[in-house]
Design a protein that fits this description.
The chain contains 3 helices and 4 strands, in the order βαββααβ. With about 100 residues, the protein is of the alpha+beta class. Strands 2-3-1-4 form a 4-stranded antiparallel beta sheet.
C-alpha cells in the first residue's frame, strides 16, 4: 500500500472548515479513482495546519491519481484560503486500525 500526504496551512477557522470540504468534496472524488483504499485528515487547530493522507493499493495507482489529486488539493486550498506547503509520498510499512467509534 502507498500513501500521499498533503500539508496545508491557513487559519484555525479554516482548519475546522477543511474537514467538511474534505469529507463532502475530496473524499467522494478520491473514491471514484482506481486503486483508492482510504483517507484520513489530521487537524492541528493551534498551528492552523491540516494534513490530508490518501491511501492507494499500489504505487501505480498512487501515480495514476497524481493529476486528479493535485486538482483536488488546489480546490481544497482555494476553498479554505489555505496554502499547500508540502506533498509527500510513502510506502506504508505498517498500518493497524480499530473499528470506528459507534460502528461496532
Amino acid at each position: 500500500m502507498f500513501a500521499r500526504t498533503s500539508t496545508l496551512h491557513g487559519s484555525p477557522e479554516q482548519a475546522d472548515r477543511a474537514r467538511g470540504v474534505f469529507e463532502h468534496d475530496v473524499l467522494p472524488a478520491c473514491r471514484a479513482l482506481p486503486g483508492f483504499v482510504g483517507a484520513q485528515l489530521l487537524v492541528d487547530r493551534r498551528a492552523a495546519k491540516v494534513v490530508a493522507t490518501t491511501f492507494w493499493e499500489s504505487e501505480a495507482a498512487l501515480r495514476q491519481s497524481e493529476d486528479r489529486v493535485a486538482e483536488l488539493r488546489r480546490e481544497l486550498a482555494e476553498a479554505e484560503g489555505a496554502t499547500a506547503t508540502t506533498v509527500d509520498r510513502f510506502e506504508v510499512g505498517f498500518m493497524d486500525t480499530m473499528p470506528a467509534i459507534g460502528r461496532r
